[in-house]
Structures are given as C-alpha cells and as structure tokens.
Design a protein that fits this description.
The protein is α/β, with parallel strands linked by helices. The chain has a single domain, classed as Ribokinase (UDP-N-acetylmuramoyl-L-alanine:D-glutamate ligase), CATH 3.40.1190.20. The strands form 2 sheets. It has a 9-stranded mixed beta sheet with strand order 3-2-1-4-5-8-9-10-11, with helices on both faces. Strands 6-7 form a two-stranded antiparallel ribbon. It starts with a strand and ends in a 5-residue tail after the last helix. The relative contact order is 0.15. Bound molecules: 3-hydroxy-5-(hydroxymethyl)-2-methylisonicotinaldehyde. 3-hydroxy-5-(hydroxymethyl)-2-methylisonicotinaldehyde binds next to strand 1 and helix 7.
C-alpha cells in the first residue's frame, strides 16, 4: 500500500485541512500519516471568530526525529495550512530529511480565497511560502494564492491565456507542476488548470460551474490530487477525479447549505471515490 504523510492543522470543528485530508485519502486507499501543525477550535474562515490556536511547531521536529529512528518512509509528503514562517522552515527541514528520489512533494499554499488573505497571514508569510513552493514537485494554489505567489493583483475573471501564463510563471518558482484550483475561464465552467514543465504540458479539467463559495473545497481537491498522484494516476486522471469529487461534494451540500455553512458534505461521496480508486490500489 502506498503511504503518504500530510502536514496541516487540525481544525477541531469545520471539516477542513486534516479532518478532510485524512478521510479522503484513506478512502482512496492511501495509508495516511499525519503531522498536525496546530490545533484550532474551528477554522478561521466562514465568519468563525474567537477560535483557539495552539501552535505545534516544536512537536514537528520531535515527531520527525522519532520517525527517523524508526526508519519510516513516505511515497508522498503533502502540506496544507501552515500557521507561521518558522513552521515553514521546520517543514522544509522535514522534507529534506524524508525526501528520496521517488518521493512526491505536494504543497497546497493555503493563504487565502476570494481575493483576500486568511486571518493571521502577511507578506513575510507569502515570501516563506514561495520558498516552500520552490522545493515542491506539485503546487495547488487557487487564483488568490496564485496572485499572491506571483506578486500580482487578484482578478476573479481570468481568461484561459491569463491562466496559462500564470501557471507557467508559477513553475518558474521551481516546482515541476502548478495546478490552479477553482480556475474558471468563463461563467459556465469551473475546475482546474495545470502546467507540467516536465512532459505533460497544459492539462485542463472543468466541470459545471456551481455559483457560490464553499469552504474546504480547496483542501478536498488537493487531497484527492495528492492521493491520486500517490496511486500512480496521470495528472489528467487525478484532476478529473478531483474535479468530479469536489462537484459531487458541492452538490451533496446544496440541499443542506443552511445547516452546513462551514464546509461541504463530503461523507456521502466517499464510497464512490473509494470505488474509483480501487483499480489503482496495489
Ligand atoms: O481550508 C483551508 C484552511 C485550513 N486550515 C485553517 C483555515 C483554513 C481556511 O480558512 O482557517 C485553520
């Protein structure tokens, strides 16, 4: 069985980051170890205020030291929400310690959405995140994060040539593949656009555009792509699976939106995801 480690926060309530990545990647048939970067009572979006935040930076180093002694190996290292610049440095050391020639390093540069940075981030954090992206194999920014990484103003109506230009520039940071999530070249379609600088070139995967903003869909999308690439899917296969699954989750949420305003209802969709991955499992 393939084994990944995902490094991101635990938002105790709110179904994002680790509490989304772990069920999704496990359902895909990928053994998923976790390193929590912080424990928050809720995530910081959707209007949640007054949340607690316990930083776990020091624990990351200790966990890594123990794992090194055990000789643990990972096919994939996948990072998500990271709480501070110093934490990015600790995670860079973790990657240096555990990366081999075969390891896939996926970085979701979680920093903002809808043209706005999440609470607690600043330009120093963006600079540190650019450095983390430079050592990744794959990065998955949304249009807001792509603009932050490239030092550009955010636009919510990117054309396909603009998306392609941004993707090429994002690989210029040093990563091999850049995937823009939530890419929408017109009002009818939404999905992902990718550029692989070492072979596959541009890859697009779009589905129907469902109007509205749904928290946690970026984390869910990145988890499916990470799981899919870990299982040996091509970039196109992983993107199509992630676009389809994210759309299914949004559709499952529409009838319960009032109740589930803080995330998406992904649980009823996990069975079909597991079925779709079965043929890739060892
Ligand atoms: O979904 C991304 C995310 C992850 N973790 C925390 C967040 C957010 C977005 O708001 O606040 C703590």
């Amino acid at each position: 069985m393939k084994r990944a480690v995902t490094i991101q926060d635990i938002s105790c309530f709110g179904k994002c980051s680790l509490t989304a990545a772990l069920p999704v990647m496990s359902a895909m048939g990928v053994e998923t170890a976790v390193i929590p970067t912080a424990v928050l009572s809720t995530h910081t979006g959707s209007g949640f205020t007054g949340y607690t935040f316990r930083d776990l930076t020091d624990d990351i180093t200790q966990i890594a030291a123990h794992w090194k002694k055990l000789g643990l190996r990972f096919d994939t290292i996948y990072t998500g929400y990271i709480g501070s610049c110093s934490q990015i440095n600790v995670i860079k050391r973790f990657i240096a310690q555990f990366r081999t020639d075969e390891t896939l390093v996926v970085v979701d540069p979680v920093m903002g959405d809808g043209g706005r940075m999440y609470a607690g981030f600043d330009s120093r954090f963006v600079t540190a995140m650019k450095e983390l992206c430079s050592i990744a194999d794959v990065i998955l920014p949304n249009p807001t994060e792509a603009a932050l990484l490239l030092g550009r103003n955010f636009s919510n109506s990117l054309t396909e040539p603009e998306i392609k230009d941004m993707l090429e520039r994002l690989t210029g940071l040093g990563c091999k593949t850049a995937i823009m999530t939530g890419a929408s070249p017109d009002n009818t379609r939404n999905g992902a656009a990718a550029y692989c600088s070492c072979g596959e070139g541009f890859v697009f995967s779009y589905g129907e555009n469902i109007p509205g903003s749904f928290h946690s869909t970026g984390d869910i999308f990145s988890s499916v792509v990470s799981g899919g690439l870990t299982l040996g899917m091509t970039l196109k296969q992983a993107l199509d699976l992630a676009v389809g699954f994210t759309h299914d989750c949004i559709k499952a949420t529409l009838p319960v939106r009032e109740e589930e305003w803080y995330s998406v209802r992904f649980e009823p969709c996990l069975g079909d995801l597991a079925k779709a991955c079965k043929k890739y499992m060892e």
